[in-house]
Amino acid sequence: MDIGLERIAIPVDGDRICATVLTAAAKLPGVLFVHGWGGSQAQDLERAREAAGLGCVCLTFDLRGHEANAAQWETVNRDENLRDVLAAYDRLLAEPNVDPAAIAVVGISYGGYLAAILTTLRPVRWLALRSPALYADEGWTMPKRQLHEATDLHAYRRRAIDAAGNRALGACADFLGDALLVESEFDDTVPRQVIANYAAALSGARSLTSRRLPGADHALSHEAAQLAYRRMLISWLTEMIVGAREVAAQARLDALGPREPGHAAANDRH
Amino acid sequence: MDIGLERIAIPVDGDRICATVLTAAAKLPGVLFVHGWGGSQAQDLERAREAAGLGCVCLTFDLRGHEANAAQWETVNRDENLRDVLAAYDRLLAEPNVDPAAIAVVGISYGGYLAAILTTLRPVRWLALRSPALYADEGWTMPKRQLHEATDLHAYRRRAIDAAGNRALGACADFLGDALLVESEFDDTVPRQVIANYAAALSGARSLTSRRLPGADHALSHEAAQLAYRRMLISWLTEMIVGAREVAAQARLDALGPREPGHAAANDRH
Is the pLDDT of residue B218 over 80? Predict the structure, then answer.
């Protein structure tokens, strides 16, 4: 996210005029989208389009067990899906224009759970979790589909869980970047206690932006909730990405010495 | 402002997962700042910093007759200063990362007048004019300083001027890009009639955003007016630049065929 600043002289009619070039880095922030269980990358494309508009490189993908790999739906496990996320992350970083120090990961539900764990395995600067799911660590390689049969997920998600006792929450506790945490007001799948657990675990983040989608269910069935979420996400990404570039530019300007007056055309009388 | 879209397959554990990479163009929009008479590039640096934050390459410069070339203050004329603007524009386009189809020019007062004329000589996609000054075409090579003595500028700026009768207004009439026009509520130098002339001339622009700075004088002497102007400018640049990238991304998505459903995790029950 570095910003270049160069003082130059431009020749004109045998004279030279002084100029300054401020340039955003050629490297762009990268945004990785991780969909939820039963979802697909298609759901992330609209948000990816908007993030690309901010000047980012975006990657969406289908987790194994979905779409082309739907045959593995009954057998795929968290370990495999986490490797999917790692492979997608590494592929995003292989894009020639991506700044490895400016990676955002956006995860929904099961994808949020995986995104949280990803932060312990790869550098993530910005972490956005919408209704992140939560599972006990046990049965890590058990088929994901069986988790809610073999374990009492309902009860687990209604308990206060300490970060030390859960891999995803522990990842959040170690996360030092900026976090966005979005919950649905009426979420039967990921109840408020899960969000509270994540929020508590994220207490060490550089910044935490916590938002509730009023009237929304887990799947954001209503268009209005979809739109509200998109706005929250893009507004947060804008603040993070534009803000980081501005800080970099300010550092360059400060290095020029004392600030010059900011008044525009103070002497202009013509 | 093109956006790349690529469907890819990512190998993982002998499987392949489908992914999509959406990438903002490596080329960045360029923003040229033209200060007012008696001003300097120093006044534009803060706004350039914010525009760099949007992912742009920015160029500020000192017109001849100012700063290092202050010795020419009494003699420099519009023709020379226009060549300064042209030289600065061409230098901005020589920056390796600049997209020649995505150039914004931001001019204040005399700089706005020159910026308007620039659009007839070089491609400009976005034109921002704050309190653009207006001069009769006569005496084009007369020293700028003498213009208000040799001509009755006060009267000229209080008349409705047809675009056909003035070089800067004529340039605006031919301008097909997007325009921002900002006036100060209490401007003794550039009265409301001048702004009305510019607004009328800009009727062919793809979009016109007209704003008044409440309580402000020509020089924006108060910090609040400076801040309000900066916010207007950056908000407009954001809409233009982010919007253009989003349109490009949408075109790429549309080319993929019928839109896939936008509902997130509609089947997610876990």
Answer: yes
Output the average pLDDT for chain A.
90
B87/A45 CB distance under 8 A: no
* Per-residue pLDDT tens digits for B122-147: 999 999 999 999 999 999 999 999 98
Nearest CA in chain A to B52: A24
Chain A residue whose CA is closest to B82: A12
CB contact under 8 A, A22 and B246: no
> For residues A261 and B76, which has the higher predicted lDDT (pLDDT)?
B76
Alpha helices in A120-222 (DSSP H): 147-150, 153-156, 167-173, 192-201
Q: Tell me the residue type at B25.
A: A
CA distances (Å), B56 to each of A67, A262, B29, B226, B236, in order? 38, 21, 5, 21, 14
Alpha-carbon A1 to chain mean position: 16
Closest approach of chain A CAs to the CA of B257, in angstroms?
A: 12
Packing angle between helix B45-53 and helix A223-254, nearest 10 degrees?
140
Q: Which residue has the tokens 């890009």?
A: B177
Supply the pTM of this predicted model: 0.78
Residue A64 CA to residue B16 CA, distance in Å, equals: 8
Q: Which residue of A has its CA nearest to B85?
A: A12
Distance between CA B2 and CA B225 in Å, rounded? 35
Q: Give the distance from residue A164's alpha carbon to the nearest chain B alpha carbon, in angstroms.
A: 22
Give the residues across from A4 on adjacent strands. A23
Whether residues B63 and A108 touch (CB distance < 8 A) is answered with no
Q: A98-108 and A15-24 as β-strands: parallel, antiparallel, unpaired? A: unpaired
Q: How far is CA B268 from the centre of its chain?
A: 46
User: Does residue B190 have a pLDDT over 90?
Assistant: yes
Q: Which of B35, B61, B80 minimises the CB distance to A10? A: B61
| Structural Rg of chain A based on CA atoms | 22
